């Protein structure tokens, strides 16, 4: 029988995004593991709700079973703190017996409006706590978002537009003859003036998107010359590569940190000394 180590302060952070579930396992303040999974159906969450250790979870949700000594030897379920932008998934996870939903009113930023996404607020709060304010967070996910706060922890505002993959898929789905271009096939910048349809789509989307991001970055620095900029999201590697090729000086000044939301969640959770 495998020996189990009793760890009282293990807790899970779950970011429910539009496309995937993003997970983190913390030991107190220390981030130990991160991984992504697909959205899961009610039946799987019901199965998880019957488990008392992480080793018992389905490997489709927790792929580290039997691999690391991170098991809770306890009669209670590992706590899950959730930040979600998908209400239907949020509702399903409330089946789990030890869950807490992090809400906007728990984030100590000033001037937030009621419909601000909790993911944007937490990423900004996490980035500001680690690297300082003023801070602009660029989240290159399903949507591309900009969210900034000033040195007084007050929300400056931001913007939302379709992300790289969404722009490609929309062109393919909403037109009669244009193909869907997958971001995974794009390994380098396309020719700006393309001679075939797929590369023409790549050129149009990528160069205008990079130009738009550059414009937001320069606008941020005009407001806050010493302001910092952090980048996260599923497409952040592609965007950083494009900036390194086109605007290397800007690329060198960007903070790349995919776990910004988890740092924001940690700040909220650590207010509860139980998990320190």
UniProtKB/TrEMBL annotation:
A monovalent cation. Ammonium or potassium. ATP binds at residues 15-22, 142. Its EC number is 2.7.1.33. Signal peptide: none annotated. K(+) binds at residue 139. InterPro entries: ATPase_NBD, Type_III_PanK. Gene3D superfamilies: 3.30.420.40. One of its GO terms (molecular function) is metal ion binding. It is found in: Cytoplasm. Its cofactor is K(+); NH4(+). GO terms for cellular component: cytoplasm. Catalyzes the phosphorylation of pantothenate (Pan), the first step in CoA biosynthesis. Homodimer. This is Type III pantothenate kinase. It comes from Atlanticothrix silvestris CENA357. The gene is coaX.
